[in-house]
Write a structure and sequence with these properties.
Layout lengths: L2 H18 L1 H10 L8 H10 L6 H9 L4 H9 L8 H8 L9 H19 L3 H19 L11 H8 L9 H13 L7
Pfam family, one: Sec7
Protein name: SEC7 domain-containing protein
GO molecular function: guanyl-nucleotide exchange factor activity
Length: about 190
């Protein structure tokens, strides 16, 4: 077997292992030279570069684990959101991962997203985190079949709830636009 075929084969095997057990998959990929030195930056780079081969739910679960916080930090640091509304940034962010089921993991991921969004968009990190969380909750409220139509959040309610998050004073037009876009096109929160 030629070296390039062997490299491709071990990459495919490593991605498959990651999709079953991310920790074992990363270990295998490091051993076979697909993730340079196994540093958080190397792992994050691999997750971005090979996202088409990785299970998005497993990527989210892996990044949301407390022990992988340095990888999550490097993962979000590789993303740029300048000049993009927060809902568009969330869509871009969720392009290669899905939020895990566990609330603590979701919180960790959205907190790091909020920090990065704030850095690239010159805004308040806490406000960005809280608004990102509100957008995910809005998504669930508007698009979950478990929420009755009569109790779904209105645009006015969303604007009232979010306009003064952490004294950020988001404009009603900005928040209303977020509401309209989420209502029209759901986020990809599930596989």
């Amino acid at each position: 077997m030629a070296a390039s075929e062997r490299h491709s084969s071990t990459l495919t095997t490593g991605a498959s292992q990651f999709n079953s057990n991310p920790i074992l998959g990363i270990s295998y990929l490091v051993q076979h030279g697909h993730v340079n030195k196994g540093t958080p930056a190397d792992i994050a780079r691999f997750l971005h570069e090979h996202s088409d081969q990785l299970d998005k739910k497993m990527v989210g679960d892996y990044l949301g684990s407390a022990c992988n916080a340095p990888v999550l930090q490097e993962y979000v640091n590789a993303m740029e959101f300048q000049g993009v509304a927060i809902d568009a940034a969330i869509r871009r962010f969720l392009g290669d991962l899905r939020l895990p089921d566990e609330s603590q993991k979701i919180d960790r991921i959205l907190e790091k997203f909020g920090e990065r969004f704030a850095v690239t968009c010159a805004s308040n990190a806490e406000a960005a985190f809280m608004l990102a969380f509100a957008v995910v909750l809005l998504q669930t409220d508007l698009h979950s079949p478990r929420v009755a139509e009569a109790v779904k959040m209105s645009k006015t309610q969303f604007v009232l709830i979010t306009r003064d998050i952490d004294d950020a004073a988001f404009s009603e037009d900005y928040l209303g636009g977020i509401y309209d876009r989420i209502k029209e096109t759901p986020l990809s929160l599930l596989v």
